[in-house]
Design a protein that fits this description.
InterPro entries: Ap4A_phos1/2, Ap4A_phos1/2-like, Ap4A_phos1/2_N, ATP_adenylylTrfase_C, HIT-like_sf. By secondary structure, the chain is an alpha+beta fold. The protein is about 25% helix and about 25% strand. Bound molecules: adenosine monophosphate.
Length: about 325
Amino acid sequence: MATTPSNKMRPTPHLPPNLPSLVATAFSRSVATKAVNFYPTSVTLLTINSIPFQLRYSPSLASKPKPPSVTTPKLFFNPFASPTQEMLITPFGTSPPSHNLVLNKFAVVPEHFILSTSAFKPQTHLLEADDLAAAYACIDAYARHNKELFVFFNSGDHSGASQPHRHLQLLPVENMKEGLEGEWDVLAKGLTDPNTRGKLPFEVFARNIEGLGGDGEELRRVYLELYNQACEAVLGVAEDIKHEGEAQISYNLAMTNNTMAVVPRLTEGGVVKDKDGQEVGNLALNGTVLAGTALVRSEMEWNALREDPDQVNQVLGRIGVPNRAKM
Ligand code: AMP
């Protein structure tokens, strides 16, 4: 006999069991038809305060659309409102589907995909339990095939976000390791260790989420706890921190199978100079910073940062709240 699930026992979103191969097939098909722009990236390993950090040059990013604030809002195309068959991997969530999985048109690594809400919801509003449960269900679906996913979310003007329709991004970790010579792993996985957090130039808040079983309400409780800490770091403890609607700060969220992390953001990045002190670009960082990755969109920036990696460290020092543990 069917039983009615209690609030705590709400069903986890149903996902196809073969998610990794579904994503891989959709990605190969859409690269072949040029619906997805993917050019092989160049990657190098830097060491930032003894943390292995990858610098990835992704030519696809040069053609990525700018946020609506710097274009004409009326002309702004929302790719997540009604994804084309070429871009859609699968709708999912309890009926009617609450979310879509779609390919990222400007993939930074192969099989870079996106979890977007089916109906429009603002990117700047706080995430809901079903967004977090859906993201964790994807992590879990990969884990069943012994594969890891890194999930990130950019929210607010200083976070590196460009699309106003709510979406989280997902990167297969084995593809993030492609081309790397040397030891590197997703930074977020180690962020529950205060020693690792203490090495970063910016404040980050993290919790272990193993054992929550992907329960959306539990994940949201942890998310709000981390969000509160991030708000307090930016606004001070006296502020009235709201848990619904528009977020009060810019931030990035990261999620892996064991960790959730939130970094409050104050700037998107900083200028990059060549060895003669000439400005050659701007290093803009989004939630991939919590994987221990910086994405570069031009060859001049790529060359300048490899010649002088300390510039990456300096930009990291500017993107968030200076780390008190490090000072
Ligand atoms: P964000 O910049 O964090 O708001 O993330 C938006 C993501 O959407 C970026 O990673 C873009 O590469 C991706 N994107 C932009 N246009 C499209 C599109 N037409 N179809 C699919 N993904 C897109």
